């Protein structure tokens, strides 16, 4: 019983941290602070956030703050 509650608690904590990170990353992106957005999106993408992965794909497809890199963009998509 306690182990199930612990797992649930950890899942909720992880979700809220990811959500907070996405909000910050999205704010940087909207303000065209692309390097800061990338720094926020990257760990989230590596942790499995689909939204962060898509945003990084877009950033690398259009060269927002980075050189256009289609293979890298594709790896995020």
Q: What fold name goes in the CATH topology slot? A: Serine Threonine Protein Phosphatase 5, Tetratricopeptide repeat
Instruction: Note poorly predicted spans.
Output: 12-17
Measured by DSSP, the beta-strand proportion falls in under 5%
Output the structural class: mainly alpha
Give the overall average pLDDT.
Answer: 85
Helix-strand pattern, N to C?
Answer: HHHH
Tell me the major beta sheet: none
Q: Report the top-level CATH class.
A: Mainly Alpha
Total count of strands: 0
CATH architecture classification: Alpha Horseshoe
**Discrete helix count:** 4
Over all CA atoms, what is the radius of gyration? 15 Å
Q: Helical proportion?
A: over 70%
What quaternary form is this? single chain
Structure description:
This protein is mainly α. It has a single domain (18-76), classed as Alpha Horseshoe (Serine Threonine Protein Phosphatase 5, Tetratricopeptide repeat). Helices cover 81% and strands 0% of the residues. It has four helices and no strands. It has helices at 2-30, 34-46, 50-62, 70-76. Helix 2 crosses helix 3. The chain is flat and about 45 Å long. The N and C termini lie far apart (39 Å). Residues 12-17 have low confidence and may be disordered.
């Amino acid at each position: 019983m306690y182990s199930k509650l612990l797992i649930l608690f950890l899942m909720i904590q992880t979700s809220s941290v990811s959500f907070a990170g996405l909000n910050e990353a999205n704010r940087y992106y909207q303000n065209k602070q692309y390097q800061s957005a990338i720094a926020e999106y990257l760990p989230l993408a590596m942790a499995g956030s689909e939204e962060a992965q898509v945003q990084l794909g877009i950033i690398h497809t259009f060269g927002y703050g980075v050189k256009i890199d289609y293979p890298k963009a594709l790896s995020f998509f």
